[in-house]
Amino acid sequence: GQQESTLLWSYIKAAKLKYWLNRPSYPPVFREVKWLFDRFVSPSINANPSDVSEVQQAVLHTYILHEGSIYTHDSTHVGNSLILYYPGSLRSVEPTPGTIKYIFETEQGVCFAIRHYLPLHSHSDPFRHYPQFLAHLFSSALAEHLTIIMPEWVVSHFAW
Fold first, then answer.
1. Among 47, 80, 131, 139, which one has the highest count of C-beta atoms within 10 angstroms of its own C-beta?
2. pLDDT tens string for the chain (160 positions)?
3. SS3 124
């Protein structure tokens, strides 16, 4: 509803500003206060700046059906929001677990704004001895920043 639209709009505005501040051609006066901006806005916003700078209007969805699977944001149905995805669509790296916070549609198509689960450093992974069994332990803590991904990057749902 209105709150999700406001949050998404704020995220897009912050990503556009961050993109602008990281350009080599921005005015030198802003270099002096960039550290202040980085202190208040996550330096690891992981959106593709060329995509974000083009977004003028987005439609929020509570769920989508993609290639036979239903995906929802976590406030609608937690189980359908838990996904494994290839970061940056790179299939050469292991899939990363995340939870869908927003599903939105722009002129470029449907996207997910997700928070990924952090690695678990306090325990060794008991599944490391079984490389054929594709299971891993992750922390229950989520990254603080949102990452924009495409539904095509999703491998599957996962259970927790």
1. 47
2. 666 677 777 777 777 776 666 666 666 666 555 555 555 554 444 445 444 445 567 788 889 999 898 999 888 888 899 999 998 888 888 888 999 999 988 888 899 999 999 888 777 878 888 888 877 788 888 988 889 999 999 999 887 7
3. coil
Q: Is the distance from CB of 97 to CB of 105 less than 8 angstroms?
A: no
Residue in this structure with the two tokens 């678990």, named with its chain if needed: 120
Q: Is 117 exposed, middle or buried (0-12, 13-18, 19+ CB in 10 A)?
A: buried
Residues contacting residue 94 through CB under 8 Å, at least 6 positions apart: 136
Q: How far is it, in rounded angstroms, from Cα 93 to Cα 147?
A: 17
Q: Is the pTM of this model over 0.70?
A: no
Query: 3-state DSSP: the chain helix, strand, coil percent, rounded to 5?
Result: 30, 30, 40
Q: Tokens for 157?
A: 């749902």
